[in-house]
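Think of the structure tokens as a kind of shorthand, similar to the way a musician reads notation: each symbol stands for something richer, in this case the local conformation of the backbone. In the example below we present two proteins back to back. Begin with the first one, reading the sequence and then the tokens, and try to describe in your own words what changes along the chain.
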Amino acid sequence: MSDLSFSELIHAFADLRLVVIGDVMLDRFIWGNVSRISPEAPVPVVEVSSESLYPGGAANVARNLTPFGTAVELIGLAGSDSNGGLLIETLSAAGIGTEHVIVDPEFTTITKTRVVARQQQVVRIDREKRMPLSDTDRAAVLEQLSAVAPDVDGMVIEDYGKGLIDAALVDEIVKIAAANKVRVTVDPNPNNPIDWHHVDTVKPNRSEAFREAGLTEPPHDGVAPLDDAALLEVGRILLGKWRSEHVLVTLGEQGMMLFSRNAEPYHIATRAKEVFDVSGAGDTAIAVYTLALCAGADARRAADLSNVASGIVVGKLGTAAITREDLLSAVEA
């Protein structure tokens, strides 16, 4: 266990190098105002004032790492289409390494366009074509990972269920990580059941955790997490199912619960003062948690710091990333 303070841990993030592997996307935001309803259909007319592009999906996890000075490499698939070009430009502008992003002419770059008016999302438009991972792309992913693994401190597997992450690929990722003594954390997708064996931590949210455990999620209003028998059973089941060292369940307004093989369940109450937008909060949680682990914190301390970071990001609009100054101010307060 590290004796470093939270502030010292945060400053230590700048000495780390991480690789994020997963489904990368382009997040496009169209901002505007609504003053009337269309005469053509009962829908609002949005007068566009600006547009923004952000790294999305697994790339948003990478984006949550770079503000701390961490060197970040990204492994994922992009198409050779116009959105693929915009994605690469957006990644570079965010300080994310693009050398290991695989461009496949047969792949459609996953793009999510959100139209936002008066701080409310009006509609989301998705562009994607789901397809299983080809043998060629699988070989390319593993080649890129093998090249970067000797020089990284940690790996984050970010599964959005879009086709990149499958059981066979995970088996090889875990082998490469073990050979290079690199810690691995996972943000899973319940629609893509995988045995997350030999990873450090798996981080589902509450509903995902219940689905992965094969249990129906009961109402939990007013029940403290440490007194929630159903949640405690979920943690027990998932530790056995995944054989990971830890399972970190994010609980929204109830904070987080950490389940560990050799310790009692640990609850961290939320630090959020106001929940404005939960977009990307899970990405922030896994990013800061992994950084803290790689900087030397134990799982409980890493979860504490991750919870502080999540409490900041839900107070921002859109898939916002927090800065080192944001986090330092919060822990010092």
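Once you have a description of the first chain, move to the second and do the same.
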Amino acid sequence: MRSMQVNGTSADPILRPVEVAQPVAGEGEVLIRVYAAGVTPTELLWYPTSHTSTGEPRIDAIPGHEFSGVIAALGTNVHGLRVGQEVFGMNDWFAEGATAEFCIAPPESITAKPSSLTHEAAATVPIGALTAWQGLFERARLQPGERVLVHGGAGAVGLFVVQLAHLHGAYVIATASQRTVEFLKQLGAHEVLDYLGAPFEDGLEKVDVVFDGVGGETLERSWGALKPGGRLVTIAAQSEGVEEQRIKDAFFIVEPNGRQLAMIADWIEQKTLRTFVGAVVPLERANDAYRGEVRSDGRHGKIVVSVLGTN
């Protein structure tokens, strides 16, 4: 099958096209014919891309762990799914990803694709929406009526954080660029603060929850924005492996969860939750997408690799 593999140095990884053997679904596994895969550029620098789950060096990893496609085969002891079914989901970070014609996923990590979405649109959902869900509800324990500050509100994760927090009855404040103010208000943000303007904490009433997608100085200044007993979660990649305990406690990486994704899919079908496609590129241009060389022409949302063409 056609695939794109990580090559080059760990400091400057690139993707190269390679023909590899098509995977086979083993016991408790599903073989997915990939139609589209979402792009998370920082993934190429993450530990699971260069190491196995037991710590040995890993080479030639296939990236792209969120996907939309069709079930091509079922392994033994897989129930409730059928060959030919349209599904979307994500697989484990240490597994081979979906920037290829086929990938393997466990059945508990996938669910039926929303019929209202193209495969390209569906591929933008799993990582962003699950990260928002798990960060807000599992880690921060967000409650209706609480105030939540979202850093990077117009990003691939932030736009789901804003929507889910709003749907949960929270008062949502987002930091973003000036050009995204109206976009974020349409998604449910009550206030949008220009991150290039005055410091976000100036005049800010303390919040119950901070959801940080930026890191660095923004993260450091966010501790002072919390009420006593407030909670902070961060997904900023540079926070991984830091020594400061409060950051270690706040940092998390999303995990696949088909049950949560099924609820998210229902909200998408009901049109209470929206997703956005920034740009679509063919498989052979995946390296450009991961290196930030694909323009979205002002559109919001994630860049997607289309493996079988627009569907």
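Compare your description with these statements about the second chain. DSSP finds nine helices and 14 strands in the chain.
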